[in-house]
Amino acid sequence: MPPSPADLADLAGASSTTPLTTEAGTAVDTEATTPRPASRRDRPTTLYDLTPAQLEKRVLALGEKTWRATQILDWVYDKKVTNYEEMANVPGALRAKLTDTLPFATMVLEREAITDNGDTAKMLYRTFDGQFVETVLMLYRDRATVCVSCQVGCAVGCAFCATGIGGLMRNLTAGEMVQQTVDAARRASELGRPLTNLVMMGMGEPLQNYVDTMRFIGIIHDPRAMNFGARRITISTSGIVPRIDALALEPYQVNLAVSLHAPDDELRSRLVPINRRYPIAELMAACDRYIAATGRRISFEYALMNGINNSDEIARALGRLLHGRLCHVNIIPFNPVEMLDFERPDPAGIERFAEILRSMGIPTTVRYSRGVEIAAACGQLRAQHERGLDGGQRTEQRTGMRSPTIPLAHVS
Ligand code: SAH
Ligand code: SF4
Q: Which of 135, 236, 290, 319 is such that its CA lies 20 to 30 A from the CA of 189?
């Protein structure tokens, strides 16, 4: 369905404050202060948190036959219903028991912004504990990709990233990630498209929320649940070395993207502070082990910032660092972030950087921004929320989301 004029107006000005389809249907209280995130213990387990085997156990414990779980899974992951009521062939008594004991989902879709003639949709969710999370669905000619968030904020604090500005609020649960994915798949199918790819390039560092991220992948990958192919999933990391090693041992054949952004420790430590803990030599050694163990190519992401990491000399140093590795470089021209002073190089400068890498034998792609307006609109959405939440004053930006234009070619 093409976007309505209201959608586009919303994008352009983000002036409407009408929340979209919400199960609970509650609007945000803009007069309240941003609540503290709930502790792990207080985060409810939802239907989306359960593996098919766990759902069978639940159903059994409620006095029903295990095959009822298969019916429920079909409603959730195939028909993609949003509540128990719609599960027509599940007995009313079981539906009632499930409603009482197992919430269907906890996140409420607060806003949706659409751009690119309806090809990019950005969802802003409110979690049960009042945090804000963003998910992006991008439709391309040959694929539809969802960009999933795994944390509210991020502890890594990269110098150029909006998400890291306020630090980490909390990890998202596997169920909250599953909900983002199923909602995006439903949205894509409403637009007549199957969801084909998933990138963990939203808010947060997936390898610092390792357990729930793996659990999430396990659920969506499970043939009895969403049956989403692991090779169509990309995990992006700032370089958490021990977890790269752990990932190589996982049974899922997911793709790995490593956010490099600089070829030397001095510069990388300034841009990606985790580099002080896991410097480039250790990171590259982990990448080599990963490639050796999995036989899979790594994508290196490189956010190009004018006057920071885009000189010819740096391009050559990057080429030397990556030479001989089974890899690919994705250059992401810097996406402007409110409150941060970095700027993107001009198109000729971006191409020149890419060309130097190519001339050194490094496969390189430039990911030009798509849907820049929507990133701006969503920044406004969040900023509006933040301003509303503190009574009209500008507040620290707690959560962020880069443009949905991060490198995607490697997952096509
Ligand atoms: N935490 C993970 C995944 C989320 S960030 C990671 O850092 O890899 C996804 C990608 O967007 C990363 O490569 C990140 O460095 C990049 N990114 C963040 N802010 C950006 C910005 N303002 N402009 C361009 N790329 C950005
Ligand atoms: Fe965290 Fe990734 Fe942003 Fe760095 S770029 S602050 S690791 S989300």
A: 236
